[in-house]
Recover the amino acids of this structure.
């Protein structure tokens, strides 16, 4: 079976023949997808725009790695590269011809709504319909909100009108692709809601944390004699609510909870937080770690048992997935985001009504006294993380693609 992946993510020419340069996170994602497709019997071809040089914007935003194409389990086909709208328009006919030729030799073609200045999937879609290949429309996040914000920006009224028209065209394309494709997978539940009219039995919503199987740890074991180590990460959004956690921790300690609190972030400069720690007499059981790098944050979580998240401003905390894949239990204020459902569905934590300090304290106390419950939460965290890992996502996608080809 032949699988064609058409991506808008540009590759860049390497310093020697047969070498291309790509974003490291994309390479990791591609390696996982390639393994899953190979296991299902697919031969993978990747078609992507190829540029001769790398721009400063890409270098500043992404880690870049070199790939020797001959060492890869997939075939790479370069599409004409472009950076500006005028360059894209000049190359559009060539891109369509190249993709149509490749798709004519494939059993299934994966494409999406991404791309700048114009969606690559939107451009090639009419040509895909002329081939015998099955069409697989993949949507990561709902693309419309970001495009609407972009369309509303800028001072030139004529350009704003043009950008707003482009958003309408993108929305119309997504609706058509969802309604007509042989397989549709979204990784954002908002996509199914936005396109509810077009959503059909060929459409699926699959969530992933984006973390690989190799990044998932093991469940925690904690004896009654050992204190539970709680970790919390302060940020601009987390500052309002950090005082709640400190007060809840102090109350749980007064009720003889065997717990310690680790706080990461620039808290020493906050007189309010430091005064609160002293007023609650927590100097000996609260450890301040200062600002941490991502690697240091992960190391700190590996030394702790429970992640506490208590912002008063509704927000999806990015540390949740990192904590669950390490087997941490979670005590969290309800955020009003998808994180609430993830925590509830996984069974890996306790969801507390936002602003309820007493219930937050009770939750910490309960976990300190019921170690069996904590260990079950840790086991659930690991099980959930494995079910929604990046590798699990690609395995699900590959199986669905195979079922479509075999129909």
């Amino acid at each position: 079976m032949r699988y064609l992946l058409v991506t808008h993510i540009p590759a860049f020419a390497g310093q020697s023949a047969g070498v291309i340069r790509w974003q490291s996170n994309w390479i990791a994602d591609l390696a996982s997808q390639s393994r899953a497709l190979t296991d299902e019997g697919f031969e993978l071809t990747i078609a992507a725009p190829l540029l001769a040089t790398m721009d400063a914007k890409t270098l500043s935003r992404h880690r870049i790695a070199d790939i020797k194409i001959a060492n890869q389990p997939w075939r790479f086909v370069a599409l004409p590269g472009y950076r500006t709208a005028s360059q894209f328009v000049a190359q559009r006919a060539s891109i369509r011809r190249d993709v149509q030729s490749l798709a004519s030799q494939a059993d299934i073609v994966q494409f999406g709504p991404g791309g700048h200045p114009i969606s690559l999937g939107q451009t090639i879609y009419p040509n895909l319909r002329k081939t015998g290949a099955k069409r697989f429309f993949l949507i990561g996040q709902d693309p419309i909100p970001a495009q609407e914000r972009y369309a509303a920006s800028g001072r030139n009224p004529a350009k704003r009108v043009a950008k707003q028209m482009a958003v309408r065209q993108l929305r119309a394309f997504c609706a058509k692709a969802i309604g007509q494709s042989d397989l549709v997978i979204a990784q954002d539940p908002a996509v199914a809601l936005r396109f509810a009219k077009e959503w059909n039995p060929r459409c699926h919503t699959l969530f992933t944390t984006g973390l690989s199987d190799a990044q998932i740890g093991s469940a925690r074991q904690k004896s009654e004699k050992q204190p539970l180590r709680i970790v919390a990460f302060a940020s601009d959004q987390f500052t309002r609510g950090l005082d709640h956690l400190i007060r809840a921790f102090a109350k749980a300690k007064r009720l003889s909870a065997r717990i310690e609190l680790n706080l990461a972030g620039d808290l020493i400069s906050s007189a309010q937080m430091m005064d609160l720690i002293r007023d609650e007499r927590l100097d000996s059981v609260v450890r301040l770690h200062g600002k941490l790098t991502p690697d240091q944050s992960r190391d700190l979580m590996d030394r702790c048992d429970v992640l506490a998240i208590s912002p008063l401003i509704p927000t999806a905390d990015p540390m949740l997935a990192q904590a669950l894949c390490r087997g941490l239990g979670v005590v969290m204020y309800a955020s009003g985001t998808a994180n609430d459902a993830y925590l509830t569905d996984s069974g890996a934590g306790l969801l507390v009504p936002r602003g309820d300090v007493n219930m937050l304290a009770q939750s910490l106390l309960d976990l300190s006294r019921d170690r069996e419950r904590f260990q079950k939460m840790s086991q659930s965290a690991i099980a959930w993380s494995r079910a929604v890992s990046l590798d699990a996502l690609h395995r699900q996608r590959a199986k669905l693609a195979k079922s479509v080809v075999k129909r």
